[in-house]
Amino acid sequence: MDEQFVRMALIFGEEAMERLGRCRVAVFGVGGVGGYVVEALARCGLGALDLIDHDTVSLSNINRQILATHSTVGRPKVEVARDRVLDIHPNCRVRTYQTFFLPETRALFDFSQYDYVVDAIDTVTGKKEILLCAREAGVPVISAMGAGNKVDASAFRVADIYQTSGCPLARVMRKLCRENGIQKLKVVYSQESPIRPLEIPGCEPDPQRRSLPGSSAFAVAAAGMLLAGEVIKDLTQFDRGER
What DSSP state is assigned to residue 45? Predict the structure, then answer.
């Protein structure tokens, strides 16, 4: 047993740790929420990670993204994530894809090789395509709903998409799931009503959004940790009731 994972083994057991060492997880989106997912999975001893994100680190990411520091500004997020993972868990097998995940790029990915898929992107088109690809491959998937314009870290919950309420993105995803015959989807969402962002000179909206969302480190971290925790518990088949 690798000494750095002993504390994990004390909870999950050696057999579960060996299972994690054989698993490959794809994390689509390694920004605010996804970056924390990657961090936690690496620290839990996961054997292999595929990291998918088109973006580079910017100054505006530093307030909330664990990969964003002044020394990483301008670098591709997937490269920064890979280096951080290997510094934490040198034996982790990491593959990076600096690309958007869209219907046009789905051919780059063989979902059947994944033991679990994490959807931490914020485009509905991409989220839909992830769900369809995962369903075709029979791979479990967990999706992040909206973490922007939230300040209450304690309001995040794990639920099936059809049990969510109050989250605008979850409302869109519920409709999308119904239209595509997706009967269940594990998500992390916030029960907190989104806060209307202030108008600050120099903060122009993203052309693809109605307004530029506000964000906080503690909200995205809470969402990312919940996502990672569900992945680990599902992969190890952890049952607190049997402890």
Answer: T
Residue 37 CA to residue 147 CA, distance in Å, equals 14
What is the per-residue pLDDT across 226-239, written as a single tens digit (0 to 9) for each? Answer: 999 999 999 999 97
Q: Is 130 helix (H, G, I), strand (E, B) or coil?
A: helix
Structural domain of 46: 3-242
- If one counts the domains in the chain, the total is 1
Kindly report the CATH number assigned to the domain that includes residue 140. 3.40.50.720
Beta strands in the chain (DSSP E): 24-28, 48-52, 93-97, 116-119, 141-144, 156-160, 186-190
Query: Please, are residues 215 and 147 in contact by the beta-carbon 8 Å criterion?
Result: yes
191 phi and psi angles, rounded to 5 deg: -80, -5
Tokens, residue 201: 């000179």
C-alpha pair distances (Å), 2 with each of 7, 117, 126, 226, 238:
10, 26, 37, 25, 20
Length of the chain: 243
pLDDT in tens, 175-214: 999 999 999 999 999 999 888 878 777 665 555 555 678 8
